[in-house]
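User: Hey, my collaborator sent me this sequence without any context and asked if I could get a structure. I don't really work with proteins. Can you help?
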Amino acid sequence: MSDTKHWQFKHDVATDAKWTPGLREIFEYRDLGIKDGTKGDYVAHLVRHNGKKIKDEVQQWHVHDCTFQFVYVMNGWATFEYEGEGVRTIKKGDCINQRPGIRHREIACSEDFEVLEIVAPANFKTRVVEGPETKQAAE
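Assistant: No problem. I've predicted the 3D structure and written it out in structure-token form, which is a compact way to encode the shape of the chain:
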């Protein structure tokens, strides 16, 4: 991680929140100002379901090229399958430290699904990959 002396104080005001499209077509995102405040070292955003019912790349096996990924479920639920960890349903109040490079895929989520996600670096890439070759990865 870079030197934090260049970071800035940020105050993201809820009444000024802007929800925008992002990585997933079924979600909308609210940037919390951390990306700008940390000069791209981290991103913190709220992610919520937008009501669309379409499949996307994240329902395929994929990885995120990042060094840190924290997910806290604020509302609803989602079921994911993680390499070496099996199928997990995360619900309101649950938290995940998703280790870097773990292959995973989303199986389903509720229409009220909403999470706080913190990732480093802010401009991480997501790549579709082959699924793991285990009994847990059976389709």
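In plain terms: The chain has a mean pLDDT of 90. You can pass these tokens on to your collaborator as they are.
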